[in-house]
# Entry
Amino acid sequence: MAELGNPDPNLADSIARLRAVARKQVFGFSIRSGFAYDTNVSFLGAGASALGLIAGRGDGKVNLQAQVDFAPIANRRETLALGLRTSQVRHFAIEQFDWQDYGGYVRYARRWGRSWEASVRYDADASRLNNDSYLSQ
# Structure
């Protein structure tokens, strides 16, 4: 606003106040869900080693995702953010496709002036298929 000659001091004060409030918002929670149905599911069957045949049977699934974010440090120059997330997919007919994912992250960012920011982030995930661990990072 200073570059414009401060045309509206009240507007500049409101913007500064709202930006200060936004920097103090350090906690976030989100939930997402979905539903899908397929009338012609491919299924390998028990002990299959090659691509399976189309089973010709229908199956529906429900997906639920949740994430919690926390930023104990959030100011003009730097941000430290932590988060946990989970995703669950449950099938109605073919339980072997049930999938669970659990993960978290840590992110540190440092702002260098108006246009530059450097950040480092670490993510960890553990995935399960039909309640069996099959992939972890």
Notes: The mean pLDDT is 80.
